[in-house]
Amino acid sequence: MQNTARISNSGKIYPNPNSGTMQFDYSLDEDHTGSLQVYDLSGKLLRNYQLEQGSNSLQLYLEELDNGIYLYQFIINGEMKSSDKLIIIK
After folding, report:
1. SS (H, E, C) the chain
2. I need a labelling partner for 40 at 20 to 30 A (CA). Which of 16, 26, 68, 85 fits?
3. 22-80, pLDDT tens digit by residue?
């Protein structure tokens, strides 16, 4: 069985930078589990979104976060598939 996940827009949250409202498009195979995790720069986990199987679009509403740089990871079956910075500017 293949351990694959297709990520639209190269696994990027968009728009980035943003004002706290953003989107993440992905496709998760039926036999996989996934999550999107958002961290502050000190490594503190701020949000953990469980991803649904199939082709989906996850809407993120993080307006309560301060302006700044955050990190996110796309996890499939417990393995990190991609990560990047997230910039919030209000």
Report:
1. CCCCEEEHHHHCCECCCECCEEEEEEEECCCCCEEEEEECCCCCEEEEEEECCEEEEEEEECCCCCCEEEEEEEEECCEEEEEEEEEECC
2. 26
3. 999 988 888 999 999 999 999 999 999 999 999 899 999 999 999 999 999 999 999 99
- What is the structure's pLDDT at 10? 46
CA 21/CA 63 separation, integer angstroms: 7
What's the half-sphere exposure (Cβ side, CA atoms, 13 Å) at 57? 5
CA–CA separation, 65 vs 4, rounded Å?
32
Cα 48 to the chain's mean position, in Å? 9
Q: For Cα atoms 56, 57, 60, give the angle at the middle one, nearest 5 degrees.
A: 140
Taking residue 22's Cβ as centre, other Cβ atoms within 10 Å add up to: 20
Maximal C-alpha separation, the chain: 44
